[in-house]
Amino acid sequence: MTLFLSRNGLSGSIPNDLCFRNPELQNLVLEQNQFHGQIPSGISHCSAMDTLDLAGNKFTGNVLDNIGNLSMLRNLVVSKNNFTGIIPPSIGNMSRLLILRLGWNNFSGKIPPALGKLPILKGVFLQANQFIGEIPPEIGQSSSIGKLYMQSNKIIGEIPPSIFNMSMLRELGLSENQLSGNVPSFGES
């Protein structure tokens, strides 16, 4: 089952029993509405979920605590909300994840090294949050990430040289952070 309700004037919260009533729900796309509140814990019972797109609403809380059991999830899009909290290390268990869009929220904490170990992750969009600490060098071990956006955070330290060894990387956004040191060599010699 797929539920597309994008670009309406819908409001309220997601019913906690949505996945109990619809356990085969594969795509929940609610982008650009007026939904609010936290993502209910019941969302973790949508074991067939492929896409969860909640971008452009007024959701709060930590979405990521409730989705760790969604092993089939390929697209997690929660940009432009009021989400807070950290990206838990358990995100490294989401081996089917292709796209991770968390931009324009209030997520904080460190970027987990596990992102570099997701085998088919293509796009990581973490811009305009409150992430701190250094860029984990493990992200540079990814053989699949093509787009990596981490600008407008509070990231410190040097750019790991491993970032420029990512074979699929085509777009890298690191502006408006607190990076220091030299830019590692990159490009063909």
UniProtKB/TrEMBL annotation:
Record-linked Gene3D superfamilies: Ribonuclease Inhibitor
Subcellular location: Cell membrane
InterPro entries reported in the protein's UniProt record: Leu-rich_rpt, LRR_dom_sf, PGIP
Protein name: Leucine-rich repeat receptor-like protein kinase
Keywords (A to Z) from UniProt: Cell membrane, Leucine-rich repeat, Membrane, Repeat, Signal
Pfam family, one: LRR_1
Main location: membrane
Cellular component aspect of the GO annotation: plasma membrane
Protein origin, superkingdom: Eukaryota
